[in-house]
Write a structure and sequence with these properties.
Layout lengths: L4 E4 L9 H12 L7 H7 L4 H9 L2 H10 L2 H8 L6 H11 L3 E5 L4 H8 L6 E5 L7 H4 L2 E6 L2 H9 L4 E4 L12 E2 L2 H8 L1
Parallel strand pairs: 1-2, 1-4, 2-3, 4-5, 5-6
Helix pairs in contact: 1-2, 3-4, 6-10
Length: 189
């Protein structure tokens, strides 16, 4: 029998992109809706149409907000993000005993551009988070994320799910909550 999969969300879990994405979205939408960066940080992880609707509270205004988000411009900002320190240490260690996968809402080329030398550790990068059938197809031992969406995905597939504590998600009450990914290494190895 082959190695089991360990599945990660990407933004906010492995990649410190939440502040960068929140600043970019804030800069684009703040002239049109009353919001702040903290509110936007809490929404990152949902698809862009959900973020736009939550900020606008109106379907027509949400469509306008979506048009303001330029994917090429967002990508230039996104490339400034880097992997969290604990991800850089944990990924190679976890790869020794598990196959690794990423399940994300970010476009695949966003993920591949920021993984750098760590890309070699991942067997699968699936950018269809909300519509993916990945977890039906693989033998996953656990799912790790930073958002309520990740918790819901883990529950939907009855997979042990861990919430990684990051500055943008301290408001989420969930157990088990990992202080860092090195705790996951200790739990699983």
């Amino acid at each position: 029998m082959g190695k089991k999969f360990l599945v990660f969300d990407y933004d906010g879990t492995l990649l410190n992109s939440i502040p960068i994405l929140a600043r970019y979205i804030y800069k684009k939408v703040s002239p049109f809706v009353k919001t702040d960066i903290r509110e936007i940080e809490k929404l990152i992880g949902f698809p862009i149409h959900v973020i736009a609707y939550e900020l606008a509270k109106d379907e027509d205004k949400a469509k306008t907000l979506i048009k303001l988000i330029d994917l090429k411009e967002a990508f230039e900002e996104y490339k400034k993000a880097s992997l969290y320190w604990d991800a850089k240490i944990a990924i190679p260690q976890l790869h020794k005993n598990y196959r690794l996968a990423i399940l994300t809402a970010s476009p695949r080329y966003f993920v591949e551009s920021t993984l750098g030398e760590y890309k070699k550790y991942f067997d699968i990068i699936d950018d269809r988070k909300e519509k993916s059938d990945l977890l039906d197809k693989i033998d996953a031992i656990a799912y790790v994320g930073d958002h309520i969406v990740d918790i819901e995905i883990g529950k939907k597939y009855n997979i042990p799910t861990y919430l990684i504590e990051r500055p943008h998600n301290l408001h989420i009450k969930y157990k088990p909550k990992l202080k860092n990914l090195l705790q996951l290494v200790k739990i699983l190895n």
